[in-house]
Amino acid sequence: MSKKNQSKADAYSFFSCIEKNFDKAARYLSIKKGLLEQIKSCNAVYRMHFPVKIGKEIQVIEAYRVQHSHHKLPCKGGIRYSIKVNQDEVMTLAALMTYKCAIVDVPFGGAKGGIKIDPQIVSAENIEKITRRYTSELIKKNFIGPGIDVPAPDYGTGEREMSWIFDTFLSLSPGEVDALACVTGKPVSQGGVRGRKEATGLGVFYGIRELCKMKEEMLSVGLDVGLNGKKVIIQGLGNVGYHAATFFHEAGAIIVALAEREGAIYNKKGLNVSNVILHLKKTGSILNFPESKNIEDTEKALELECDILIPAALENVIHKHNANRIKAKIIGEAANGPVTPEADDILGKKGVLIVPDIYLNAGGVTVSYFEWLKNLSHVRYGRMEKRFSENMNTELLQVIETSCRKKIPIEEKKMILRGPREIDLVRSGLEDTMINGFHKIRDLKKSLKIENLRTAAFVLAINKIIDSYEKLGIFP
Ligand code: GLU
Fold this sequence. Notes:
The protein is built from 17 helices and 12 strands. The chain is α/β, with parallel strands linked by helices. The protein folds into 2 domains: 49-190, Rossmann fold (3-Layer(aba) Sandwich); 193-385 and 420-476, NAD(P)-binding Rossmann-like Domain (Rossmann fold, 3-Layer(aba) Sandwich). It has a 7-stranded mixed sheet with strand order 9-8-7-6-10-11-12, with helices on both faces. Helix 2 (14-26) packs across helix 17 (453-472), helix 5 packs across helix 6 and helix 7 crosses helix 13 (363-377). It starts with a helix and ends with a helix. The structure holds glutamic acid. Glutamic acid is lined by residues 76-78, 152-154, 184, 336, 361, 364-365, 368. Residues 76-78, 152-154, 184, 336, 361, 364-365, 368 line the site of glutamic acid.
């Protein structure tokens, strides 16, 4: 984000934006004010400063872990490494995690962490030092553990950082048989689950694909049903944006523009995502990609002609100053909080369909849930049933062949015989979760005549959280 736009976005608190969305939803429910306040507020905010020796200097690092809700345990949410990390941002992102988990039926309270460093400048060796020290600070205060609070990757972090967190936790918790479940998003070789890396991007794809199947909604924005041929713009080519772009491209959508920090590239006939990535790896930038036009001001890419706009980078990128210029008919919030409440109102009036973050980017935490379950059960998905299913399928095919007196071609047979592998189970669990989540929100929107999908998603989340409080018997 440019300095100018950053200051526009900074003019109000991110947390208050989410409160506004929450309050709109609360109007559809008759819930006591005190209980609503309890749901909204952050249960615990841990702000820390710790020293790390970098070269010959001692540097004091500012970091956070916020547990927004304890209505379900453990708390869950990623850790962000960015120079822009601040308390308001971490609190907001933690709150979004609570609502997100409730919507997709993942039994966690929301949390988020952040370390105020620029991972592009700090060396890998020092990032490791900082990550390990941060983890031991969390352990000291009982802010991490398989049943307490389980971090995961977020902006600026990935598998590498998660394996350092796990290793530090394990060495300080000898004999903890469930230690693997203290963090998710680990490499598969260290207890991670297959399919976690691409989960958020794939979830975004499943969610938008489901919306595009709905005749009524497509009619309302003047588009045909289906993803094929739809023009898509993706902002951010990090883990989420890159995978989302790949899945949209494979499904026949046309990726007309891709935007990164340094600028954007545009081709109205479509960009080949894997070639763009090769170019990025080779040159260090997406700019100057053959057969595409460079757009120097990356924010301008959001305003180009398209059907679907996917902001997959940071918060507040669509605000009251650019909302009127957005031409997309559908906005899929792959990032957390990319549209400010003012922009939301402007776009709503223009008839733009916004698929909200608290539903659309829940694929990451959904697969984190699968990873956590795998770690607690100490068994890989598919290990018990793969061979059994294959044997059953073989017998079934034999019966069919005998009774029909016909041989099934070998290639078809192979497809039917195959028992489920871990990746198959994870992806089908994710697909089912995203499809169900979408319809729950859509049905609620229709039955309560709610103005948009975001408010409906908040209503769904609040209802779910109230349910768990009632089950706990905390609020008779
Ligand atoms: N950081 C991701 C998110 O914002 C994933 C969180 C998790 O897997 O716990 O949803």
